[in-house]
# Entry
Amino acid sequence: MKRAAGLLAALALAASCAPLPEFPAPPVPQASDSAGYLDAEAIAALAARTPLPPASGSAQAQADRAALEALLARASPQRVLLAQTHAEVRPALAVQHFDCTLGTRLAADPPPALLRLMTRTLRDASAASEAAKARGHRARPIAEGFEPCIRADDALRASASHPSGHATIGALWGRIVAELAPDRAGEARRIGQEIGHSRAVCALHYPADVAAGQALGEALFDALLRDQTFRADLEAARVELAEARARGLTSPGCAAEDYALRPAG
# Structure
């Protein structure tokens, strides 16, 4: 444990001297984009069921801001570093978010069916979250004076905060990995939720935005289970993931991740 703490302390020191990392935003599919599993009607229906953001200046919005301030006050440097890592949602790299949960190392050679699942569901999640954002614009915390933990360009600063697209895809991927590895289902869903929580740790979303995104991700998974192509890809990924786990590879970052996710205090 002392070794993990020392590693994280060194990383935190290095991060304090380095420029903030920058990650590309998730793709925003156009109406004609057919790369996902779900059609436009299904996406629109899911977006329509997503709660609207709190009204600006309302008691709910003020409570949400206070909740973010409290979260940021107790976030450790190690948790901030993990939040920076969670900002990466390009599937070929984002598979590593689940390495420690699965006891393997996926990014070096991502299983093709799993990569296909993550790529196509990223499209669905991006389309659904963008459609939900269009129903009512809420400014991001970084547009209200909070400092982000990654570099944020003008487009990110101006984009809507509610619901969180990263929280949507995190919850969705957590459900997918839980389905693929039932023996690690609870842990997989937890990491999927933490990907969303990381967006609040990075001051890119308020807690209510994260909760709405996570609920949308859960609803997306339920909708996807009714799609035959998705289910076929799920079964192919199940076989590949079992083979990857059987190789016995492990990630050197798991002790650090475990330390970062321990409750504060």
Notes: Confidence is low (pLDDT under 50) at residues 1-17, 28-34. The first helix runs from residue 2 to 17. The domain at 2-260 is CATH 1.20.144.10 (Vanadium-containing Chloroperoxidase; domain 1).
